[in-house]
Design brief:
The protein starts with 8 loop residues before the first strand and ends with a helix. The protein has two domains: 175 residues, Rossmann fold (3-Layer(aba) Sandwich), CATH 3.40.50; 170 residues, Rossmann fold, CATH 3.40.50. A seven-stranded parallel beta sheet has the order 3-2-1-4-5-6-7. Strands 10-9-8-11-12-13 form a six-stranded parallel beta sheet, sandwiched between helices. It is 39% helix and 14% strand. The longest helix has 20 residues. By secondary structure, it is an alpha/beta fold. The chain is globular.
Length: 373
């Protein structure tokens, strides 16, 4: 006899003040399951702009926390560790990596992992070398050591492990010695349409160092006849976001435009009318934005690494580039531009077909299946 699907579900996510792919997934999941969301910092305006105004009454804050790392992550970790909803819900979904400590007091539970906590594991050396000054490095090492112990301790309370990609599954196996079930993020492909190009390339990222946005800008310094629009979300008042934003604006040529925030309708319009999409992240967990671009029938240029290898078909829906730098990126932009001049629809069909593999209709169904076990 099949178990009755739980009627009351709570979802935990560390912050909702800077809306990226992980946050959109949580909002979509809460809508699909009619669930409440527990978080810390909230930006109702950004949630509205991304098309989730209906979800605002379902979002509950555990209290504001600082904007700057590592205090932001540490206090989120602490608040979710102390959270105990005392059987108020039938099931709990951990949707944010720094909210995984919530599993200690809230069961039965499932963790939808976007990655093992990157600041502690996969990106630890990158952060130490590129984001820490000499005096911060030993402090960062101590912080990592302390929080790795906590992370592994809290991990024992996670009951079902799910994740967004094969890439993340491998990281979970590497760092946690756990097997996770892959459930790819939902892309509402029917909301993306193809329109003729208006002579610009598009990039959608958080304005943070490991996204390597400077590589994109340097490529367009060498391409005066091409244009790039970067939609870059960042947290105002957060030091590492603010500093990186200033750094890339200093080297930005006239043919590159940076938009800090736009509404979902405007973003989908940019997808529909771009020539192609560029993404240069160091090692993306999955990467929803490239799939969104393909849903609009647009080719994607990306690093041949991480989650991109699971979504982009090299030479068919765009190009995957080994050891991507500004020169290699420039060459591929020129190549695709020439191809599109001959045939504007060259990539359209293949891109849209590939994007449909990640459509929303299967996502909620697969999450429900795990909850019902």
């Amino acid at each position: 006899m099949q178990k009755q699907f739980p009627r009351k579900i709570a979802i935990f996510h560390q912050f909702l003040d800077n809306i990226g792919g992980a946050e959109i997934l949580v909002l979509f999941l809460a809508r699909g399951l009619n669930a409440d969301i527990y978080t810390t910092n909230i930006s109702n305006e950004k949630i509205k702009q991304m098309g989730f105004a209906d979800m605002i009454p379902k979002i509950k804050s555990l209290g504001k926390i600082p904007k700057n790392a590592p205090f932001k992550q540490q206090l989120a970790f602490h608040k979710f560790r102390k959270l105990n909803l005392k059987n108020k819900y039938d099931f709990y979904i951990i949707g944010g990596d720094w909210a995984m400590s919530s599993g200690v007091n809230n069961k039965p539970n499932l963790w939808y992992a976007h990655s093992p906590l990157n600041e502690l594991w996969e990106f630890k050396n990158h952060i130490k070398q590129e984001m820490c000054s000499w005096w911060q490095k030993p402090l960062y090492e101590l912080w990592v050591k302390f929080n790795r112990k906590l992370n592994l301790k809290y991990l024992k309370h996670v009951q079902i492990f799910t994740c967004n990609s094969e890439n993340t599954k491998n990281r979970i196996k590497k760092y946690y010695k756990k097997n996770a079930i892959i459930i790819n993020p939902p892309i509402d492909t029917k909301k993306y349409i193809y329109k003729p190009s208006k002579n610009y390339w598009l990039s959608v990222n958080r304005l943070i160092k490991h996204k390597r946005i400077e590589t994109q800008i340097k490529a367009f310094q060498k391409l005066p006849n091409e244009n790039l629009i970067i939609v870059g979300s960042y947290e105002k008042g957060s030091k590492h976001f603010e500093e990186y934003k200033k750094d890339i604006e200093k080297i930005k040529p006239k043919n590159v435009k940076i938009i800090n925030w736009i509404k979902d309708k405007e973003l989908k319009k940019l997808y529909s009318e771009c020539s192609g999409f560029i993404t240069t992240a160091m090692d993306e967990d999955f990467g929803m934005a490239p799939v969104e671009a393909m849903a609009a029938g647009k080719p994607v240029i990306a690093r041949n690494i991480g989650g991109y290898k699971e979504t982009i078909i090299d030479c068919k829906t765009g190009y995957l580039i080994d050891n991507l730098n500004s020169e290699r990126l420039k060459e591929k932009i020129q190549q695709i531009s020439k191809e599109l001049k001959k045939d504007p629809n060259k990539y359209k069909k293949a891109c849209q077909q590939q994007a449909k593999k990640f459509d929303t209709k299967e996502f909620i169904k697969k999450i429900k299946k795990q909850i019902e076990k």
